[in-house]
Design goal:
This protein is α+β, with helices and mostly antiparallel strands. The strands form two sheets. Strands 2-3-5 form a three-stranded antiparallel sheet. A two-stranded antiparallel ribbon has the order 1-4. It has seven helices and five strands, in the order E-H-E-E-H-E-E-H-H-H-H-H. Helix content is about 30%, strand content about 15%.
Length: about 230
């Protein structure tokens, strides 16, 4: 009451609206998956969606075909909308946004039903999101992407280390292939010179101590007692 009233000269001077003004709803149809969640949750039933299914060929040979929903119509009747923002809040893929634009009055009520082409035009008036608080936590998407990148970098580093070990082993023992990840076998001592068929000294000693067996007779024949001379006669 102690200040002088100042009248804003609208429409000559546009009002300075806050960034979260609920003016009109913009549609980013590339993010829409036709989940119908916004239409089901709308308390005024002012959202109209039509779609059809298409078969997508396999991405790799031998894969199976998949089906996806294709958006045919997305319309919002702003003559019924009460600007509650439920459709924007429940959209899981960020396809709907608030725009501060409010100058879309029409002389015909039927023109207040905005189809997806007109809803797409409102996207150019959506303000940029505010900057994140420096002390806020890192978004989950960035944290997951960074974790995946670190895991891939560690795996590549381990592969390079293993390749370096294989190269060192091949350099240390040329001409002798080694199994991956297994050290090269030590060189065996050279065999003693000779024919290679001579028995060992211990074997020769045991053979000289044991009874000899006549040549040409089997073990069964030598073990049996030999008949006496009287019996043979």
């Amino acid at each position: 009451m102690t200040k002088k009233t100042v009248t804003e000269q609208y429409p000559d001077a546009q009002p300075d609206l806050p960034p979260r003004t609920r003016g009109v709803i913009g549609l980013f149809e590339e993010n829409c998956t036709v989940c119908m969640l916004c239409a089901r949750e709308c308390p005024d039933w002012c959202i109209y969606i039509d779609s059809h299914k298409e078969t997508v060929p396999p991405a790799a040979p031998g894969g199976r075909e998949r089906s996806r929903n294709v958006l045919d119509r997305f319309a919002i009747d702003f003559s019924l909308c009460m600007y509650c923002g439920i459709c924007i809040e429940v959209c899981p893929f960020d396809a709907l946004f608030w725009s501060p634009e409010f100058e879309y009055a029409e002389t015909d009520i039927r023109d207040l039903t905005h189809e997806r082409d007109k809803l797409r035009e409102w996207m150019w008036t959506v303000p940029a999101p505010p900057a994140l608080d420096p002390g806020a936590e890192e978004p989950k998407e960035l944290a997951a992407a960074r974790k995946t990148a670190d895991k891939l970098a560690a795996q590549q580093q381990a592969e390079r280390a293993e390749q370096a070990i294989r190269t060192d082993q091949a350099t240390a023992a040329p001409g002798r292939p080694t199994a991956p990840g297994r050290p090269a076998a030590p060189d065996r001592p050279a065999a003693p010179t000779g024919t290679g068929t001579e028995p060992h000294a211990d074997e020769q000693a045991r053979a000289s101590e044991g009874p000899t067996r006549p040549m040409g007779e089997s073990k069964q024949q030598t073990d049996q007692p030999r008949p006496r001379r009287e019996d043979r006669e």
